Amino acid sequence: MDSIDISDAHRQRPAGSFRALIDDRPDDGVFRLHRDVYTDPALFDLEMRHIFERSWSFLGFTSQVSQPHDFFTTHIGRVPVLVSCGEDGSVGAFLNICRHKGAELCAVRQGKSKSHVCPYHGWIYDSSGRNIHIKDQDQGAYHPSFDQVDHGLVPLAAIGSYKGLIFGSLNADVPPLEDFLGDMRFFIDLAMEQGENGMEPIPGRTQYTYRGNWKFQLDNGLDSYHLTSTHLSFMRALDRRRVGEGNPHGNQTDFFKDSHCDTASFGFDHGHTVFTMDNTEPHRRPFWPYIDKLRDRVGDAKADWMSIKMFNSLVFPNMQLAHNTALILRVFRPIAVDLTEMTSYCLGAIGEPPGERGMRLRAFEDFYNAAGLATPDDSVVYERCQQGMATGAIGWLQGFSRGLGALETGQNDVTRPMGINPVESSMGTLQSGQEVVYHPPYREWARLMEAGEAAAPAYP
Amino acid sequence: MTGTASARDVIEQEAICLDERRWQDWLALFTEDCVYWVPAWKDDDTLTADPQTELSHIYYIDRAALEDRIIRVSSNLSPASTPLARTAHILGGIRQTGAPGPGRVTFRSSWSTHVFWPQSNLSHTFFGRYEHELVEDGESWLIARKVITLQNDYLPSMTDFYCL
Ligand code: FES
Ligand SMILES: [Fe+2]
Fold it and tell me: Does position A253 have pLDDT exceeding 90, yes or no?
């Protein structure tokens, strides 16, 4: 029997060794995480510096800044960011911080503006981030040295986009975006190629917080094991819908019908990971009526995956795409070690007819919304985990082991036609509840934390 | 017209049913084809206007959809609803808007709901405006359409219909 473990592993570990928090011994079939990973405030600060401030982060959508002067604001970790389309149509991303005395410049979530005026002393920046006005500059008795410095907004060190998704980095030492995403691109394509003119976030915000570590969302967004326990009340609603009672417009796939279907998890380089499952009800997909057209445009492999599969995925560190009858992209922003802000986007095809969009919306609202029938049950279990672990009485967690006995490396019959090459895969059914899906992000977590502590390049 | 007084009463009854967890009584206040709509905010000053092309927090056009919500909170299977939050709905500024049609009347009101979650010992106040469209049903009135404008849409982790 295990005894109470109130030790602080992070205090015992040698400086810079994060491996002490991840017991990763593939040859012995062991993968364990220490709860400090979720609860230690000192680790949280290091995560901001070594992970969020040194790798790519999802910022937003190209559709949000498609016209001159369109802008939106967001964050990379703790850092406020402004993404803006300049007069010339080129998209820039900047620290959303006034150069004068550091006020957050733009407090509006999104909009269109030729310039941004700082509310404090009135410095003005144009939509390309250039400083165009320093109030009363000629009477400021500035020393000539003042003219030697640039007063424009500080651009991010790297910006890139892939299939309508914009990413940015505070660190120039990152791989090209396409290399960073690697074979995760196959799954991003499944989401972002559904519309022939691309995809967009459907207007309307759904934003909420939970009092737990950001990695509870990282985990749970990939967790197929909790579906038939945390969401039993949702299953109860589905039981009724199956016989024509309850909400006739929820447009959900029937998880019980699918519970014996094949599932798979795929892990990729750079911490990205995917859980997939077969889906017996492709007709619930809004594009099903013209699947043949879609097949011509994206090819058989992708069309099959779009229609007869669902997936949950992670683009490390904090963006997830889930494809079911609705398509959700969510971002979880760490605010404190035990506080996380969630932003969920319901994605729709640009130019799709209202009927199709309505199908997406009803499915999204039913399940994924903050006031939906599933998400509050997820959020509250994260809070329960934070409460449970914060006591410090439990050291090692046992939630990373399912699927370890079924791990495969290299390509197999499933991945070959997809043209992807995961680092490792695991095949099963929904009841398998693969937990190996978490290994790539935590390995990447440890790698980046160690590189950061060693002041070594994040991506050598 | 005594009728509109009893229509107004339905609005208060509705809030009381939610606070007292009289779910079936609450449900019975709605027409079968009722619209129950909580639009999302599109930007800082604008609500979404079209549920077919824009996101809502909740959008139902069928009373049966409200049943799903009740099934969930009374199932003992929903971690966010077990134990269930305690609420107090406060209503104010109930005013009839527009001219009543035959057997049909619309009210606006301001509301706040104080919510206490026993499982975290935390409280939160949701607030906003209601629009109730009521239709005459024999001696009484039923809610044919309820639109909830949620002013503070930066949501806590356990937001549900009884909080609104
Ligand atoms: S802080 Fe922006 S103008 Fe002074
Ligand atoms: Fe869930």
Answer: no
Residue range(s) defining the domain that contains residue A84: 57-160
Which residues from chain B sit within 8 angstroms of residue A211, using beta carbons? 120, 157
Residue A140 in domain: yes
Task: For a ligand 1 pocket test, name from A94, A96, A101, A124 the mutation site with the most ligand atoms within 8 angstroms of its C-beta.
Answer: A101
3-state secondary structure of A108: coil
φ and ψ at B99, to 5 degrees? -85, 135
Asked if A430 and A261 touch (Cβ cutoff 8 Å), the reply is yes
Q: Can you give the CATH number for the domain in which A377 is found?
A: 3.90.380.10
Looking at the fold, whether A156 and A201 belong to one and the same domain comes out as no
pLDDT, one tens digit per residue, over B23-63 is 999 999 999 999 999 999 999 999 999 999 999 999 999 99
CB contact under 8 A, A361 and B52: yes
Distance of residue B30 Cα from the nearest chain A Cα, in angstroms: 15
- Kindly state whether residue A167 falls inside one of the protein's structural domains: no
Dist CA A274 CA A267 (whole Å): 7
Query: From the alpha carbon of A121, which atom of ligand 1 is closest?
Result: 3
| Closest among A207, A259, A206, A229 to A381, alpha carbons compared | A229
**Domain holding B91: CATH number?**
3.10.450.50
B157 contacts A383? CB cut-off 8 A: yes
Residue A251 lies in a domain: yes
Instruction: Provide the number of structural domains found in chain B.
Output: 1
Return the pLDDT at A390. 85
HSE, side-chain direction, 13 A CA sphere, residue A397:
19
The pTM is what? 0.96
Q: Which of A160, A195, A216 is the last residue of a domain?
A: A160
Give the count of domains, chain A. Answer: 2
Span B110-141, pLDDT tens digits: 999 999 999 999 999 999 999 999 999 998 99
Contact A46, A453 (CB under 8 A): yes
- Starting at the edge strand found earlier in the chain, the sheet holding A124-126 runs A115-117, A124-126, A131-133
List CB contacts (< 8 A) between A110 and chain B.
43
**What residue in B sits closest to A72 (Cα-Cα)?**
B43
Q: Is residue A223 part of a domain?
A: yes
**Pair A190, A153 in one domain:** no
Residues of A in contact with B156 (CB under 8 A): 208-209
Of A190, A188, A194, give the one whose Cα is nearest residue A165. A188
Which CA distances in Å does A110 have to A85, B43, B114? 12, 7, 31
Which residues 211-270 in chain A show a CB within 8 A of chain B? 211, 230, 232-234, 236-237, 240-241, 245-250
Same domain membership, residue A208 and residue A123: no
Q: Is A296 in the same domain as A422?
A: yes
CA of A373 to the centre of ligand 2 (A): 10
Q: State the residue range of the domain holding B12.
A: 3-163
Ligand 1 pocket residue status of A100, Cβ below 6 Å:
yes
